[in-house]
Specification:
It is built from one helix and eight strands, in the order E-E-E-E-E-E-H-E-E. By secondary structure, the protein is mostly beta strands.
Length: 154
């Protein structure tokens, strides 16, 4: 998916109401290997938000892994290009931040509209749609034993 229709979400804050423009780009299934074995798999989305249509958006790289109930921010780039943080897809052992419920609902609706997941509500763990859930494979090449070809050291 390349683009979604931008939506307006209103957030009341006392006497003032803020309107946030949000759109989702590049929502897709991802699977990446863990450093110590296994796989991280789930949904990835690039969420763009701004307060005005003529402003450059803040970009948030979001993920929701299999079995998780919520979307989390993996990386955040401000409208001026300043990188707040960038953890990588699905990394949960570094800084983990969530988003407000209205934006999370918007991401869930987009995932459902694309047919990427069967139940995308925040009350249930993420389960991928059967057509989109590829079986991950483990490497078939056994680990190399013996001296390193470059140094000769084990």
């Amino acid at each position: 998916m390349t683009d979604s229709t931008p939506i307006e979400i209103e957030f009341p804050a006392g006497d003032v109401t803020f309107t946030v423009l949000a759109s989702v780009h590049d929502m897709q299934y991802r699977q990446e290997p863990e450093p110590l074995g296994g796989f991280r798999e789930g949904l990835y989305a690039r969420l763009e938000t701004s307060l005005r249509s003529d402003h450059r958006p803040t970009v948030r790289h979001m993920s929701r892994l299999l079995g998780e109930h919520h979307w989390y921010i993996d990386g955040e780039v401000n409208f001026n290009g300043y990188i707040h943080h960038n953890n990588g897809f699905g990394v949960r052992y570094l800084r983990v931040s969530g988003i407000v419920a209205e934006l999370e609902t918007f991401l869930n609706q987009q995932a459902a509209a694309l047919g990427l997941a069967t139940d995308v509500s925040s009350s249930a763990p993420l389960r991928l749609a059967s057509a989109e859930a590829p079986q991950h494979t483990t490497p078939t090449t056994p680990p190399r034993r013996g001296p390193s070809p470059r140094t000769g050291i084990r």
